[in-house]
Model the fold of this input.
Amino acid sequence: MDPDTAAHRKRALRAELRERRQNLTTTERQTATAGLTRNLVDLATDLSARSVSAYLSTPMEPDTRPFLNWAHAQGLRVLLPISREDGLLDWTTGDGETETEGLFGLPEAVGELLGPIAINDVDLILVPAAAVDASGMRMGWGRGYFDKTLGSMEKCPPVYAVLFDGELVDEVPRERHDQPVDGAVTPTRIVQFT
Done:
């Protein structure tokens, strides 16, 4: 697929997915949060993860906060991303409570900056996604931070995209820089691609 066609198809699919997310009812969101939290806890437990890289979800995303609260309560080391101007991510452990508005108006944790390579030491990486296809190809929201991070890692632990059930699709448009994931976690299931 030529890059212009892929970029255009991604924009159209992202717009459709954003609209779908905006149309979720409060009850649907609460049900999704409960199921997602259960599945994230099961995944972290099954992998015996002692450290995890995750992110603070926005109000439009599947809610990661109950899982983060569980992880903190269990004594897991949780790394959260801090966006940088150069397109890389710094990481912090944060305190699980304090947030600030990051570079793009998204919620980010507050804490000591650990640098981009801190992620190399985690047992599990959870990433946001707009959609993931049947082959495990992830489509993000277009800034490329997670693709750049995952593409630069020498030895990558399991990477799971976090999304709503309807966002597992047959195929996503693909560009050269896009990175696949090992699995996906939704409110109703944990899917493995590798």
Q: What stands out?
A: The helical segments are 3-22, 26-46, 65-73, 145-152. The CA atoms of residues 90 and 117 lie 8 Å apart.
